[in-house]
Design goal:
The chain is 21% helix and 52% strand. It is an alpha+beta fold. It has a three-stranded antiparallel β-sheet with strand order 2-1-3. The mean pLDDT is 87.
């Protein structure tokens, strides 16, 4: 099923100065998973501690339900 849903693109800075870019439906939950290395965090942020949210932007459009 195709629906219109808001999503967020975000950029975080890691302690080593690198950046990670991602997108999520629930940005707060996603950032928490990166910061605390929860089960669904990205492989990259497991080995690069997230330090700061640099930018986030909402976007919407047709997307398939997960």
């Amino acid at each position: 099923m195709i629906t219109n849903q808001n999503r967020y693109t975000y950029i975080v800075r890691c302690e080593d100065g690198s950046f990670y870019t991602g997108y999520a439906k629930d940005i707060v939950r996603r950032l928490r998973s990166h910061y605390f290395h929860e089960a669904k965090c990205a492989k990259y942020t497991r080995s690069h501690q997230v330090e700061e949210l640099m930018a986030d932007r909402p976007f919407s459009g047709a997307a398939y339900d997960d």
